[in-house]
Each structure stands twice: as structure tokens, then as C-alpha cells.
């Protein structure tokens, strides 16, 4: 008999426990989920709680920090420290790594952007949280070296999109991508999407980028975007300006998301540890392509990059094979060696 009450709720914790025997990993994902529930509450109550606007600080990358950025960051740091399973945390909002006091220290190292899409906070447009998890190297007590490793070392990555619904998407290294919606009536993330994959036929023809930067792009990127607009089956443009929302739509509907390097930002805008690696792992495990486009003389896979510092940046070209191929074709026309997809 159908009922609005579920007597067998497939919660996130239950799912994680079914996937791993590592109890510390279960505790870690629980702490991440709790932080995201706290952030949900802050985002949803931002107006009444007077949380719009600037905090008066500038973050590690030189961006103005919003009050919600600071609060979300504190929520994540506190939850992760007290989980007892982390030794080092790096956040987009902190210049320096956060070393967990010995009394709480554990084996995981976590990188996160607590509230991605800051420019959208004050007008209630979707924002998100992004995280990636690493294990300490053998013998290490937890240092930035444990995080300054290629994406191949990332053991788990996820994001949460705070939107008309709140959805957490995550994957373990080498595994499927799963989605969980926050059911506010029980305060739990519930398993709603099994094995998320890019649409097999490429899906909707959507390109997503900040075209305000077009004059600074290299010729192949300009030509690819021109192709998207003039192709026999033209693409449509969608750009939220919150990476989490744009990537979530790209996985579900198809298309391509670009934040390329350009003449004024040679490494692009997005951060490798907080945005590039976690999103690349999710995109690839959902059947998509996560490329840098032209970066430091060649086209690279984001997951092959090794950050040289915790706030290192990287260009991003992520999407379905059909659409990333369009970008590669333009590079090939300019004589660049492109990987085969
Ligand atoms: P943030 O972490 O400071 O919010 O910056 C990251 C955001 C991404 O979510 C988004 O894709 C991009 O910056 C948008 O940048 P722009 O405003 O230059 O288009
Ligand atoms: Mg941010």
C-alpha cells in the first residue's frame, strides 16, 4: 500500500555502511553530511538571520568573503575536527591548512570549498559545497604533502547543491556516482539517484561558460563556442555561475561546462583541490570527460594534475564526450596534439 511514510528509508549512512567496512570512513561521511545540513539551514535562513553581505575579510584567493562563506566554513571545520577521523583540513576560505589537534586526529585529509558560488548567495541562486578526501601517507601524522598529490590519490569526492531541493552527490574512487536528496521531514539524506551517468546519447546540447571572458580566451575555445552557437543542431546556453549547479545540470542533462585558462588568468579561476579534482572524479565516474583544455603547453586530464600548493588553480573543460570532442577538434585544427576520447 502506498504511503507518504517510508518504513525502510535508504539513508546516506545506510548506503555508506553497505559500501565500506571502514568505520572511520562512515564517521567521516556522517560528519560531512551533518555540516551540509547545518549549511542548508544557514542558506535557507540567510535572510531572516541577517546573513547576507560581506564578512569584511578577503579569502586565500583574494575574493571577498561573505558572512555565509565564513559561517559555512566554521561549520565544516568544527564538524570535521570533532569527527575524530581527520588530521588535516584545507579550505578555500583558509590561507593556511588546519591541523587537527592530536586529541582528535585521525587518518583522513579533507579539502573543501564550503560554499561555492559566493556571488549567488545574496540573491538566493543555487550555491554548493564541494569536498574531496585523501588518506595520510604511511608514516605521516598529517601534513599538506598528504594532499599535494594527483587526483589518483583521492579516495572519495562529493558535492551538495543547495537549491529548490538539497542534493548530495558523491562517489568513492573507482565506484558509481550516487545522489541523495535531503528529506527535511526526517533531516536525512535519502538515496534518490542510483549510478548517475551522463546521458548515453550525449543528452541536451548545452554549453555553459562565462562568455564575458570570451575576448581573453585562446582561439580554439572561441571557435568551439562559436561552433556551439552556429552548429546545424545549435546548442543552448545555460550558466548559473555556481559550479556545483552547472556541473549537476551537465551530468543530468548533458552538455559541457568550461572555465578555461585565458590571457588574464593563465591557470583559470577554479581551484584544483577544492573544485577541479573532486568534480573531475565525479564527472569521469559518471562517464564524462574532465580536461584542462590547453594548460601549461598541453591538454591534460584534470585528475593527472598534482597541486604544487593547496590553493593551486586549473582550467576546466568538463562534459560529455560528444561536446568535449568539439573543443578538442578546434585545438587539433590549430595543430595541437589532442588525446583521443
Ligand atoms: P567561489 O568559490 O569564490 O564561489 O568561485 C567559484 C565560482 C564557481 O562556482 C563558478 O563556476 C565560477 O566561480 C563563476 O565565476 P565567474 O563569476 O567568473 O563566472
Ligand atoms: Mg567558494
Automatic annotation (TrEMBL):
Pathway: Carbohydrate biosynthesis. InterPro entries: FBPase_C_dom, FBPase_class-1, FBPase_N, FBPtase, Fructose_bisphosphatase_AS. PROSITE patterns: FBPASE. It is an enzyme of class 3 (hydrolase). Coiled coil: none annotated. Keywords: Carbohydrate metabolism, Cytoplasm, Hydrolase, Magnesium, Metal-binding. Residues 11-194 form the Fructose-1-6-bisphosphatase class I N-terminal domain. One of its GO terms (molecular function) is fructose 1,6-bisphosphate 1-phosphatase activity. It catalyses: beta-D-fructose 1,6-bisphosphate + H2O = beta-D-fructose 6-phosphate + phosphate. Its EC number is 3.1.3.11. Pfam families: FBPase, FBPase_C. It is found in: Cytoplasm. Its cofactor is Mg(2+). PANTHER family: FRUCTOSE-1,6-BISPHOSPHATASE, CYTOSOLIC, FRUCTOSE-1,6-BISPHOSPHATASE-RELATED. Belongs to the FBPase class 1 family. This is Fructose-1,6-bisphosphatase, cytosolic.
